[in-house]
Amino acid sequence: MAIICTGFIATARLTAAAQGVPGIAIVEYPPPNIATQGVAEIQRYASTLLDKVIEALTGPVAGSCETEAKDIEPGPREIVISGSLDEVNEFFYENQWTDGLPIIPPTIEKIEDFLKYTDRSPDEVIGKFEPTNREGTVWKIAVNGIMAGCRPEYMPVLIAIAEAMIDPHYPLIDLGTTHGTAPWLIINGPIIQQLNFNSSISTLGPGRQANSTVGRFTRLLLNNLSRFLPGLNDLSALGWPGKFGMCLAEAEDQTPWAPLGVERGCKSIDSCVTVLTTGAFTGAFTTVGDTAEEHLRGLAGYISRSITHGSLLTKTTRHVVVVLSPLVAQIIAKSGYSKQDVKEYLFKKARLTAAEFCALEGDFVREIDLFKLAAEGRMRKEYCTTDLSQLLPITHSPDEFVIVVSGNPMRNRSTSFLQSKGHPVTRKIKLPTNWDELIMNNLSRQGQGKK
Predict the structure, then answer these.
(1) No. of helices (H) and no. of strands (E), the chain
(2) pLDDT higher at 70 or 263
(3) What is the bridge-based pairing of β-strands 401-405 and 319-324?
(4) Residue 371 has pLDDT above 80, yes or no
(5) Which one, of 291, 287, 183, 173, lies nearest residue 234 by Cα?
(6) What are the backbone angles phi and psi of residue 4, rounded to the nearest 5°?
(7) CA distance 339 to 329
(8) What is d(CA 302, CA 284) in angstroms, rounded to the nearest whole number?
(9) Residue ranges of domains in the chain
(10) Residue 216 to residues 134, 144, 278, 301: CA-CA distances in angstroms?
(11) I want to staple 295 with a disulfide (CB 3.0 to 4.6 A). Which of 89, 206, 277, 287 is the partner?
């Protein structure tokens, strides 16, 4: 039996069914948001639930689960519809298999084209996608890649992304949170040039097929395997454009340091993808000056005040991703700063006062015993202070800062964002044995097409 607030019923039923208890009894707590009620009001509502709880625990167990979405998964080679492009798109839209935008129909012929770019069996299960526990196969990855508008040669990248998203360290199950978090991809290695990813001006903007469609692939994968649909498993309060998918390539030819992929264990000759999450960006902020210290001071100031996510104090991990423009990164490196030096600087200087933490946390700080949590090892002891002017770190260690170089090489603009749950996950992009031949053939065909 579960007591569920209004608005979360469909999510609870779908999750329960995926976890093997499709007949779970649910008692509905009527108000939509318990966090907006006072103690007396909560007690008044809760007192009316006792009889319903007893009935749910002692009554007959339901034998089936109904959800608020059409959720029947077709077989791998099943033809679900034949018709015009408009008819196919309308059918997919009605079945909630799209992100609301038109898709490319995933025909058998197109799927087989994608499968040429991997040595893996189409029926291979790479893992299960929470919270539905649907199996993610190589075939399904190709289907969602086609729908997103990807080229067949992107297939190795798509598989690596899917593998990273189901890693236990990645917060997949939290992507339906009311905060509106979404996957965010960083590409490294030779594949950036081979597949024409944008790592320069407007790196996260429209205009480049690789970035746009590979980013969109994550949204469709979440829609169709995790079933993160608005009102079902996705209860984002507002959502934001990043939920359509974000893919950034690092400017490896302009970074003064080892790129992120190498830093996270990949070889420079290999390609890899790192998958993170975020709910918003700070915007592209400006730092000025011709010395490293001037830019680092500006970065620390902007980054610390971009942290607006609640419940900071008890998070087990707290990664802050900083995207530096090549221009800013080179000025900093020219003064002798390594990437680790930058992380150490930001850990020491990008801080908030205890008063600012209290303002961010609101009632959370006032209603819990911080000292008790610290004694239990559930919170860092330095946050337990009665001095509201004391400066406190926004990460647990310097290594929770993730530094990436990308964007307009002529501008002094950078950005940052917070991954408040889980860890970034990096996966090597495994290429088929005949990759070089396939890529050369593609380049030849594309060159002929341009002519």
Answers:
(1) 17, 14
(2) 263
(3) parallel
(4) no
(5) 173
(6) -125, 135
(7) 9
(8) 10
(9) 2-58, 85-350+394-428
(10) 20, 9, 15, 32
(11) 287
Angle, CA of 190, 196 and 199, to the nearest 5°: 80
In whole angstroms, how far apart are CA 28 and each of 10, 37, 56?
A: 11, 16, 11
Query: Is 386 exposed, middle or buried (CB count within 10 Å of its CB: 0-12, 13-18, 19+)?
Result: exposed
Q: Which residue has the tokens 């329960």?
A: 16
Question: CA end-to-end span of the chain, whole Å?
Answer: 66
> What letters, b where the CB count within 10 A reaches 16 and e where it falls short, cover 248-262?
bbbbbebbbbebbbb
What span, in angstroms and rounded, lies between the C-alpha atoms of 43 and 243?
37
State whether the Cα torsion 439-440-443-446 is positive or negative: negative
Residue 276 makes CB contacts below 8 A (sequence gap 6+) with 183, 184, 185, 186, 319, 321, 402, 419, 424
Q: Which amino acid is at 83?
A: G
Place of tokens 């221009």: 327
Quickly state the pLDDT bin for 71 (edges 50, 70, 90).
Answer: low
DSSP 316-364: S--EEEEEE-HHHHHHHHHTT--HHHHHHHHHHHSEEEHHHHHHHHTHH
pLDDT digits (tens, 9 = 90+) for 91-134: 999 999 999 999 999 999 999 999 999 999 999 999 999 999 99
Q: Which of left, alpha, beta for 345 (phi over 0: left; psi -120 to 50: alpha)? A: alpha
Burial class (CB in 10 A: 0-12, 13-18, 19+), 364: middle
Global pTM value = 0.88
pLDDT digits (tens, 9 = 90+) for 399-417: 999 999 999 999 999 999 8
Token pair 């996270």: residue: 264
